[in-house]
Write a structure and sequence with these properties.
The chain is built from 12 helices and 11 strands. With 303 residues, the protein is an alpha+beta fold. The protein is globular and about 60 Å long.
Length: 303
């Protein structure tokens, strides 16, 4: 068997965070940054796993007998190893066909792990391809979440994502061309734990869920058709106000950037990772002066 290589794109959720879990229509983009997985068979009687970061530095090295992992004889020592073994076990449960021998696994990230673009989701998507299993099933049995990140992994365009009767509904979407020149993504220099954020959301389950979902769906649709920057800014302001009430968290612009002349929206888990900025002029100087140095325009981030 020859060496196999798999690749999945990272992701950003532009609208519908949290409420996508309950059926809201979300707008998402696949990113230019992703993760590779390389798998080659070995006859040494042991599997190796090597994970490299975006600077080509190994951040995970481990050896194990794959057969003992999938038969629950090996649990793993570190938290990362335990999580890795869990994914392999669940993949085996979904399809045992590829687990008859040991392998050398290598992963390579194209983005810093703290960016929140999908270190976990790209791994799930890649391993699902290798093991020939449904990636949504593998995600459900491991990290959980809505699955929009899995949809982005192989998408070539922006998309809308909605869970309808527990089935992912994915449609091609378009970000207006004239708007792209005004979109920037700024990293808040801290990583949010998506699983913790989801747990917190579930703990404060909103009362008028139907009404909230309807509002988010409307914003998602309107954002794809905006004709002016001001219209887009108004939509993301509405979205921030809506989610602020749901999460009982102050919007990021009010909290950190109240003097900014433009629109700002949290992305993904509130309080960390990237924010989306709408600005008529390049906002790099403003955010750099505030201590935030990772600033990408739309073309640099989006596939």
């Amino acid at each position: 068997m020859k060496t196999q290589q798999f690749y999945s794109h990272g992701k950003l959720l532009l609208t519908g965070e949290y409420l996508v879990l309950d059926g809201a229509k979300a707008l998402a983009i696949p990113c230019k940054y992703g993760q590779y997985l390389e798998v080659s068979p070995t006859h040494d009687g042991i599997s190796t796993w090597l994970s490299y970061d975006h600077q080509n530095k190994a951040w995970l090295k481990t050896e194990f007998d794959l057969q003992k992992v999938v038969t629950y004889e090996l649990e793993g020592e570190s938290d990362v190893e335990k999580r890795l073994f869990q994914i392999l076990k669940e993949a085996f449960q979904l399809n045992s066909e590829g687990f008859t021998q040991n392998y050398n696994f290598k992963t390579h990230l194209e983005f810093p792990k703290d960016w929140g673009l999908g270190t976990s989701s790209t791994l799930i998507a890649n391993l699902a391809k290798w093991a020939k299993v449904n990636p949504y099933d593998l995600l459900s049995k491991t990290f959980g979440g809505s699955g929009y990140d899995i949809a982005c992994a192989d998408s070539k365009t922006a998309l809308t994502y909605q869970i309808d009767n527990q089935i992912p509904k994915i449609e091609e979407a378009k970000i207006p061309e004239h708007l792209k020149a005004f979109i920037y993504f700024v990293h808040l220099e801290q990583k949010q734990n998506s699983r913790d954020a989801i747990s917190n959301y579930k703990a404060v389950k909103p009362k008028d869920l139907k009404g909230l979902i309807s509002e988010v769906n409307s914003i998602t649709e309107k954002f794809q058709k905006v004709k002016t920057l001001e219209e887009a800014e108004d939509l993301i302001s509405q979205h921030e106000a809506l989610l602020s009430k749901v999460l009982q968290v102050e919007p990021i612009k009010t909290r950190l950037f109240s003097d900014f002349k433009g629109g700002i929206k949290s992305l993904g888990a509130w309080g960390g990772d990237f924010i989306m900025v709408l600005s008529r002029s390049n906002p790099s100087e403003y955010f750099t002066n505030k201590g935030f140095k990772t600033i990408l325009n739309f073309q640099e981030m989006s596939l």
